[in-house]
Amino acid sequence: MRAVIPVGAASAAIDLFSRCQSRLKPLLRVVLQVFFSFVLQAPARADEIRPAQLDIKEQSTGLFAVTWKVPTRGDRVLAITPQLPESLELLGSPATQQLPGALIERATYKNNRDDLTGQTIVIEGLSALQTDVLLLIQLQDGSQHSSILRPASPEFTIPLEPSKLEIAADYWQMGTIHILEGADHLLFVLALLLIVNGLGPLVKAVTAFTVAHSITLALATLDLIRVPSAPTEAIIALSILFLAAEIVHKRNGVIGITERFPWVIAFLFGLFHGLGFAGALSEIGVPQGEVPLALLMFNVGVETGQLLFIGVVMGLIALLKRLPVSAPQGAWRLLPYSIGGLAAYWTIDRVISFMPGAA
Q1: Measured distance CA(127)–CA(258) in Å, rounded
Q2: Helix H segments across 222-333?
Q3: 333-338-341 Cα angle (round to 5)
Q4: CA-to-CA distance for 333 and 59, rounded, in angstroms?
Q5: What share of the chain is helix, strand, coil (3-state, %, to 5)?
Q6: 170, 147, 189, 150: which is closest to 46 by C-alpha?
Q7: pLDDT, tens only, 270-303
Q8: Are 59 and 65 in contact (CB under 8 A)?
Q9: For an engineered disulfide with 297, which of 41, 171, 262, 267 has Cβ 3.0 to 4.6 Å away?
Q10: Distance separating alpha carbons of residues 98 and 356, to the nearest angstrom
């Protein structure tokens, strides 16, 4: 059973975080307590809302291992079901595994035809839902097919061989989807935007972040480095907490290391964020014959989503500056302390997940 963080632990995290920054006014403490009470009702993983995933892998000639991962909302499983090609015959009974936020079903099928080309896979019920399905088909000859099935296009016909353009488009979409659904990665970028002054330093910081996560994404995908995912996710959460503290330092007139050397901090933590991206890409898989292309386009997709997010945030900031309203004194604390509080909660939860005795 997954460890549960009590409200008291979250309150202790708030107090510790507060002492590291400044003394909070009573009103702000009440706001943070309400914020944590709300957050503790939800799972602590930042990437909890993910698309479903269907993985079909040929283990030996004519035998396929099929893994179906479908998101859950509490105790409710999304009402979508894969309709596999008619030539696939189920062997035995499927094995199911319940994970936080997802239900995984694994089964073995026998193919009663020479191959799967020309056959169609349909996700029943997808047209009625607002979610996507990542489809990956790996054949014994090394060829792979991938696609993103959506409510408007819930089926996929297996071609003889995927084109480079199809692979590029698919992995670009997957990268964009991952970054836009990764709340922890986006909060890091948001905190960075709130610290860095000027367009030039901001461009340098974002570029350094991009270069860093591109390096570790490539190295991990090519299996040149291996880092456990649980500690990596904890460090990513801790990086957000660090930047939240730097926001408060800046507002209090203290020049922190991030404000002095934003590109250095962005590069350092970008290395760990790249390992997080690599973990997501490893779940999807990459075509063996098109690893460089898939890796490049996934990274381009990540950057596309990141730039879209930055554009939206900067647009909102510009809009707020034009509004003829004035915030109450001390209201600026709400955003950095909310970011920091949530990051502290994620950090505690993720550290607990790989501590001895955690299940």
Answers
A1: 46
A2: 229-251, 257-260, 262-284, 291-322
A3: 120
A4: 55
A5: 55, 20, 25
A6: 189
A7: 999 999 888 877 776 777 677 888 888 988 988 8
A8: yes
A9: 171
A10: 21
Paired with 89 in beta bridges are 110
* CB-CB contact of 166 with 297 (8 Å): no
* Dist CA 229 CA 212 (whole Å): 17
42-68: per-residue pLDDT in tens?
Answer: 344 444 346 788 999 888 778 999 999
Written as six digits, the tokens of 14 are 């708030």
Residue 115 is predicted with a pLDDT of 79
| Radius of gyration of the chain from its Cα atoms, rounded to whole angstroms | 23
191: Cβ–Cβ under 8 A, 6 or more apart, which residues? Answer: 240, 243, 244, 246, 247, 336, 339
Listed as own residue / partner, the contacts of 62-67 with beta carbons closer than 8 Å and 24 or more positions apart are 62/110, 62/111, 63/108, 63/109, 63/110, 63/111, 64/88, 64/108, 64/109, 64/110, 64/111, 65/106, 65/107, 65/108, 66/106, 66/107, 66/108, 66/109, 67/104, 67/105, 67/106
Confirm if 179 and 306 have CB atoms less than 8 A apart. Answer: yes
- The tokens for 122 are 């349909």
Residue type, 168: A
Cα separation of 297 and 86, whole Å?
A: 33
The CA distance from 304 to 51, in Å, is 19
